[in-house]
Amino acid sequence: MNQIQDTRLARIRAALEARLAPVELVVDDDSAAHAGHAGAASGGGHYNVRIVSLQFEGLKLVTRHRLVYDSVHDMMHKEIHALAITALAPSEV
Q1: Which of 32, 46, 47, 54 counts the highest number of beta carbons within 10 A?
Q2: Per-residue confidence (pLDDT) for residue 15, from 0 to 100
């Protein structure tokens, strides 16, 4: 993994921690599996996020995803091309 990828992972993690105070957070860079993909040409990476947060209790999946996207909004479409999200409440783990 290169320095840019390390920095992006750290920034994604920091943004999610700041906004959603997760009890569990895993962020993986899946960009290498998408090399040659049209979106990869722009420099944006592909990431997988598994996040467990009390803030997701009682919320529908679409609302949970919106909270995650809002947390990394400034990185979307420039640094993040694709974001796969698993968003759970603690009661669902």
Answers
A1: 47
A2: 97
